[in-house]
Write a structure and sequence with these properties.
Length: 419
């Protein structure tokens, strides 16, 4: 994490206040408002609005809820009874939270339509439009499209301008799940990855991911200025009185799904004040540069193979091929064995305590487990650390298939393996 953000977190924990009315957290309420205004400005949302949420799953649900409310305001009081089935569209690479959110909102997981992706993991806009037309023919009601900026596994960015063209054609709400990849809006060299963000209706972004803001720090932003309070307010008279002496728009709990909320905005505000958007953008550019360098090292290193030739963001996905599997026929049996390698390496990582890197399959592409390395801004990496990671993966990969290479202790951890 960013140590500046940590200092902000200490202050908010010490003061132990909540963010629902201006009276309870006057300075923090103004800080949250200013941070959201600044990020809306970066996104081109002009006179937009937003709220800090517990995480991107909740932020994505804010977007879905607002889209439904704008499509049919009566849903707030009358529910979904008698309506055509609402359907939403998101790529097969998108986050699982959209199915959870559809379940919670009564839309139903069967009405989450998966859109195909290209070889980079980006949504195929032609398939999106085809599935919108199919839903209309089936007498269903499309209302919401999610684009992803930095997919979870491959780090892919959907083409926001192309998707916006389709959404404008069919009058659909366009949300962007930028939880992972939204930090490029601060970047000098990589902001183009989110070209078209100003044409979207809402966005979710987690500074606690790439930027290293202490957990939790997640925001929901929307271009629609007054829609959050219209959609979410229930006018609790004991708390959100409208005849207070100050501007009651600072009572942010009136537009939130929560009442009590931690002061997450202050951690990110501290980082903005200390580093500026330029300093944070430099960190983003550096970590993307490190990920590109790591990709080149994987390409040139014997026994390593990339899942695809290059990646748009800080994700690098690859296989390690143990020595006993090299120079053999790569048939189905060989591939099945290869897909067991990453979990075994991960087990050795946990037991040795040296490094911790995740793995993932891509079932819809017929790909089994591979190593999924995701770089973040903190700690600030140097090239020597990239070599250490690859050296350690190779060491653990060979150890995983050599039963005599390690001796386990009574608690299951490898002796002399902890660094």
């Amino acid at each position: 994490m960013d140590p500046i953000g940590l200092a902000g977190a200490w202050i908010t924990e010490a003061l132990n206040t909540s963010s629902y009315t201006f009276e309870v957290a006057p300075v923090f309420s103004l800080i949250e408002s200013e941070v959201l205004r600044k990020v809306c400005e970066l996104c081109g949302y002009g006179n937009g609005d937003g709220i800090f949420a517990p995480g991107a799953s909740m932020s994505n649900m804010y977007g879905m809820s607002l889209a439904r409310y704008k499509f049919c305001p009566d849903v707030k009081t009358k529910g979904v009874f008698g309506m055509k089935p609402l359907v939403l569209f998101s790529s097969e690479e998108s986050h699982y939270s959209f199915k959870k959110d559809a379940h919670w909102l009564g839309i139903g997981t069967d009405n989450c339509i998966a859109v195909k992706t290209n070889e980079k993991g980006q949504m195929l806009v032609s398939d999106l439009e085809e599935k919108i037309r199919r839903a209309l023919k089936e007498d269903k009601q499309p209302f919401f499209v999610n684009a992803t900026a930095g997919t979870t596994v491959l780090g892919a960015y959907d083409d926001l301008n192309a998707i916006a063209d389709v959404c404008e054609k069919y009058n659909l709400w366009l949300h962007v799940d930028a939880a992972h990849g939204g930090s490029v809006i601060l970047s000098k060299n990589n902001r183009h990855l989110m070209s078209g963000i100003e044409r979207t209706n809402s966005m979710a972004w987690n500074p606690h991911k790439a930027l290293g803001t202490p957990l939790q720090c997640s925001m929901f932003l929307t271009k629609e200025k007054d829609l959050l309070p219209q959609c979410n307010s229930t006018d609790a008279k004991y708390l959100f009185q409208q005849d207070k002496f100050y501007d009651v728009s600072y009572d942010t709990g009136n537009k939130s799904l929560q009442c009590g909320r931690k002061i997450d905005a202050f951690k990110f505000w501290s980082m903005l004040k200390y580093r500026g958007t330029g300093g944070l953008g430099d960190l983003v550019d550096h970590v993307i540069t490190m990920s590109k360098l790591f990709t080149e090292k994987v390409k040139s290193r014997e026994g390593f193979r990339l899942v695809q030739d290059n990646f748009q963001y800080t994700n690098v996905c690859f296989w390690y091929i143990p020595k006993h599997m090299r120079n053999k026929e790569e048939n189905d049996k060989w591939r099945q064995e290869l897909w067991t390698v990453a979990p075994k390496i991960k087990e050795q990582m946990v037991r040795s305590g040296s490094i911790m890197v995740g793995y993932s399959p891509l079932a819809y592409r017929g790909l089994g487990n591979f190593i999924r390395m995701v770089f973040t801004c903190f700690p600030v990496l140097e090239e020597v650390e990239l070599d250490f990671i690859l050296d350690k993966i190779e060491e653990l990969g060979e150890m995983a298939f050599n039963n005599n290479s390690c001796t386990s202790t009574s608690n299951g951890f490898i002796k002399n393996g902890y660094h």
